[in-house]
Amino acid sequence: MNFMNQEPGGGAAGPTPVPNPNRKPPEIKPGTVRNIVIGIVAVIVLFYLGSTSFYTVQEQERAAVLTFGKYTHETGSGLHFKWPSPIQEVRIVPAELTQRITIGYREKGNTVTPVEDEAMMITGDENIVSADAVVTWKIHNIRNYLHNISDPEQFLRNSASASIRSVIGSQKLDYAITDGKTAIQDLVREKLIELQNKYETGIQIIDLKFQDIEPPGGEVEEAFRAVTNAREEKNTKINVAMKYENERIPKARGEAQALIEQAEAEKKSRVLNAEGDVAKFNAIFSEYVGNPSVTQNRLILETLEKILPNAQIFITNGDGDTVNYLPLNELLRKEATGDEN
Predict the structure, then answer these.
(1) Region (Disordered): which ranges (predicted)?
(2) Average confidence score pLDDT of the chain
(3) Is the full-model pTM beyond 0.90?
């Protein structure tokens, strides 16, 4: 009778297998190893091709494609295919984005940090002035932007600072901090654009605006601020005076023209009256020449009527004893009423 082996725990167990020292492990065929290696290499190649042959360009970006390091073409936003590196490379730049840099200070969030080395400069009359500016720009030519300058932003900052120093260095301090700010700003913008074109940086300058042009702080700043306030007050008074002048001169011209027209009318009226008087006198004179006594008597009577409008006129002849009476008033009254009796 065979008894089964007992486990230490008292449970029954099957017979323990005994390894065969003469048994060989399964053999792997050489073709299988080759296929595995080829599969791994193929996966790696496909992953490499997929990761280097497709690229995505965002809306505000453009991509320059370089074939063996030479610029060939550009692509816009979207998903694009290229030959894998090192055959073709892609450099993506924010060509559709308007960018800005500051000169004389830096902004980080709500914090503004002055940069004295950029802001301080000497004017044409050997005074020190502080100038802060903002330059707005964008990429105009990607090929020039990537190949002609190594650090575009630093080049733009240096060229803007050089342009500002060049223009302010030829102006007087008083002019730079008062009336000349706008003119200096335009000159600096033109000079900065000229530098970008000269070196073919591919950068388009959209605008340049000064934030401040002022002398250094302290007593000098207070003195120039007083000068600026006085100049502004002067300009205000000049503008008020010019406004008053513009209001009064047209009004005075109108009044003068009215007086001239009134005098001309008075002149014409008097000339016409004088001509009428002359014509009347000539008519009376011609009648007087024909019959002087009658005309003379009539003139006397008309004059008496004007002098004594309410007097009764009697014409008598005192040569004889009998008074001859001519009732002129009754005759005139009858003549006026049309009574012929």
Answers:
(1) 1-27
(2) 81
(3) no
